[in-house]
Amino acid sequence: MSTIAESISESAVPQAPPVVAPLRDDLNLYPGGRTSEGAATWTLHDPVRNRYFKLGWLEFELLRRWKFGHVATITEGVNRETPLHADEHAVRRLEAFLDQNQLLQRLTPMATRKLLQLRERIRKQKRRVRLQQLMFFRMPLFRPDRFLSTTLPYIRFVYTRGFAVSITVIAVIGLVLVSQQWASFTNSFSYLFSFEGMILFGIAITITKAVHELGHAYTAKFLGLKVPTIGLALLIFWPVLYTDTTDSWRLRSSRQRLNIGIAGVVAELILAALATLLWSFLPDGPLRSTVFFVATVSWVLTLLVNLNPFLRWDGYYVLSDLWGVENLQQRSFALARWWLRRTLWALEDPPPERFSVRQRRLLILYAFATWAYRFLLFASIGVLMYEFAFKIVGIALLGMLLTAFILRPVSGELRIWWRRRADIGAVRRSMVLILFFGGLSAILLVPWSRTIDVPALMRPHQHTSLFAPVPARVAAVQAEDKQKVVAGDVLFRLESPALYHEQQQVGLRIEMLRSQIARQSAHDLMLERQQVLEQQLSAALAQHRGNAQQLARLTIRAPFDGTVVDIAGHLEPGRWIRDNLQLGVIIDTGAYEVVAYVSETDLARVEPGVVGKFYADDTEHPSVALRVVEVDQANIRVLDEPYSASVYGGRVGVQQGPGGELNTIESLYRLRLKPEGAMAVQPPRTLRGQVRLRVASRSLMDRLWRLVGAVLIRESGF
Known about the structure:
This protein is an alpha+beta fold. The chain folds into five domains: 2-127, no CATH class; 131-324, no CATH class; 338-424, no CATH class; 465-584, no CATH class; 586-715, Beta Barrel (Elongation Factor Tu (Ef-tu), domain 3), CATH 2.40.30. 49% of the residues lie in helices and 20% in strands. It has 20 helices and 23 strands. A hairpin with a 4-residue loop joins strand 3 and strand 4 (51-55).
């Protein structure tokens, strides 16, 4: 939506005879809402391009009399019938605005040539392939207005107070039920990293976004508006649905526009509440996984993405309506540039618009926050393009993205500063440059960073899991959880009737073979038979020894001094167990070590002897002073400690391979550290956390130089 003040400057007003061009016959004029100062507004609608323009009181009064055709008649009527003051300059300014937006009838040959030139200019612009056109474009899919009008009566109950209360109750019940199964609910997230999980996640995204757009569309139709299209938009190479609710500018009430803007978020939250409740009653399977993804996608993406006010999504328009500032980003950016020029260079330009002091500060703060967010967003997207595309393509896309969305806007403002250098005093210019380059040098050259944080795992130096050697029956459990034992203590007694019976049968066979060998004579024919019997006896004896070892292993003893933890539940005497069931874990609580993982960029700063502290995720455990004793020289590609993996709640980012292996996302190197002195509190088992290492200081410039050098060396093979 455009306003006259934003579109036409005073210098743009042309010199023309005292006759104005007529308005197009198809334009519509609607009453608008009130500004933050309480002034009345009107909305001019262009139905051909479906664009809306906001008009003030003076522009409205001028348009009411535009049919008179002469400047003097128009201004005289305004001055006589209203307390406003209108002159030829105001009329020409409005005419320039209307002409620029193609809202006037142009019947002269000169006007026709102007339209032809405009069409040719637009045609040439369309031939240019721009990065913004590739990354931000819309493609209408269908016209939903008739469908919405037909189906709206069936869903009107959604807009009642009773439905709102019901959904609130459903959401509370669903959250209570999920909280009782929280471990199972959160573990469902790991399913996302499978092929089937990715498909279900895509289905969930499609469902939630379709519901989101229908929320906008139905709410607009409920308020009596027309919804011309629902389509597909490409936003930074990511496809998203969109609903054209431009007609909402016909509404006089900002509250109604706010309802349309937030309707998509509300629709997703309703869907999330229903999915959360349904998840608690469904059995495990694809349907329950799909419902889980619908619930989590709706909750998380709605709150983190759709309500984001820094991009032109729902949160942006909601904030715009709350503040009563249309074209929020455009106007706040202009205000922030004005403030920046005045603050840095003492340029006494008038502000682009008049706002209250409080609103001006909010808009300037919003502009700087948006610029910072966009910088981080586009830089992150550029890095992702570089990482996941082909090398040469990724580098090209990274450069184009950073140039188009970061370097070009910055260079444009710098060019304005350079053109106006004569307006900037020498003292002011010198002071700003000294502060700027001095601060930049301090940031880049002064070694600030003295510590690095790395994910880590504290574990006993000796630890082993106890398993049954064969499927067996529990005879006795002689260990308790957290019981201290010494090497050789009996922990579990198992029995295997089948193995015991087999051992008895082998013993009888050995006795029979020995008896047959003893009865053999020295006859030549019997000698060959005796050799066969001796071979059978040797095999039987070997089987007997093997069975004896298996029977001995059924008595499970402590392999070293330590503490027994994680004893399996329900190990009552008489229960049958499988051979891969973990009966318990024995750990040596007398000696601990810490295994940490450092990135390639920080590897050069870590060497044996570096000290640090371990901070457990369990805040009840005190920090532990450590010293690095070993640094691996080769990076790890497969994580051998599942407890540290991100898919199991750890801090090390991994992706599960086709065989279930945990492949690290970035290049990591393993560190081994030892506690310095006795620990105040000994953990009973493995602890996750992080290690903060005190390393040699390094400036940001040094780190950037090493990083760029490493990338150039690594990618020089493309």
